[in-house]
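Box 3.1. Reading complex inputs
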Amino acid sequence: MKALVFDAYGTLFDVFSVTALCDRLFPGFGNELAQRWRAKQLQYTLLRSLMGRYRDFWGLTEDALVHSAKSLQLDLTASSRAELMESYLHLVAFPDVKLGLEQLRALGLRLAILSNGTNRMLSAVVERAGIRDLLDAIISVDYVKIFKPSPHVYRLTMVHLNADGSETGFVSANNWDIHGARSAGLKTFWIQRSAGEAPEELGYPATYVVSAITELVGWL
Amino acid sequence: MKALVFDAYGTLFDVFSVTALCDRLFPGFGNELAQRWRAKQLQYTLLRSLMGRYRDFWGLTEDALVHSAKSLQLDLTASSRAELMESYLHLVAFPDVKLGLEQLRALGLRLAILSNGTNRMLSAVVERAGIRDLLDAIISVDYVKIFKPSPHVYRLTMVHLNADGSETGFVSANNWDIHGARSAGLKTFWIQRSAGEAPEELGYPATYVVSAITELVGWL
């Protein structure tokens, strides 16, 4: 294994960091709004990819927020909308991220992010987490204008890292993302962040299952 | 307008007809299981289309059932699984369907179904609803091996019905399906089956919004 590529949202960065702000703006609806926002954001990446109507992850995340607020009949003002979108640039990294990446880097592996996010969105959260120096590349699907789990996206990593599928491991906490990467020819490591979470039935299960990034070093 | 094409699941046939059986097999979990099953089924159509790993709607509906039961930690026996899958062949038509189609047929319009379902699944529910004679065509995505909202799927209707986009109306209660059809060049009619349901933010809103199929005749 020469390189390890990480998904960003849900794997390195906690998308539910936004819940507290959701609840401050819409008391009693914070959790429901955050859950719907995330689910809708993912659904829009899939729908737009299949429609052949790409829109970048920033715009699509805002569309998902607008729809989710409407579906809950919440009055999303322009300032609340801007504040919630801004919070996406300040998502918190999970506690195992920095130490885990340091351990893997010490093994001599090339490390990268492969994400649906735009370069601007990814740079912001990477800087905030203090992990910029641990990464060889930050790869956005914005290069190919289609979202995961299109095989074109996963093949980007091989181009960027100059490594073939058998030399590249893909790490994600999103199980559908694991199926996509495995189907595209990469070795996969599923971070099962919730104990008992059922894997998807999509035909390309994870090569390895771990519960934290700090466990990866034991396998490599 | 020469032809009207209808989505099947959720538009003509109630996918939540399965809820009672879900609740008989798993008391107290019927509604949650039925909701998850439907959401996962749709998600799998999108994920597999984008992965380039088509599997027909029957197989994928069964995969979605298996995952949904596991996610609720329900013990899905082989016989319960078979019984639930069988129930998908007996979905009930909404009360406005037969009368609405008869009214539209009387206007001289060609009528068809365009659905993610397989031919076998669609034939079963069409026979049960007694609407076979009202339809000129039952078109399954299985011809093109990719699911909605791929534009290839919607363009199938023009081939089958020998009508171009401006002569073909597409009717669906699934709002994302409306965006897909409009993006592919069809006129669209959204059946808003739940009052207050928020439309999707995908850039291609419905040409017309009605609350039942029997209202379409007034527009045509």
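In summary: Residues 44 and 60 of chain B are 7 Å apart (CA to CA).
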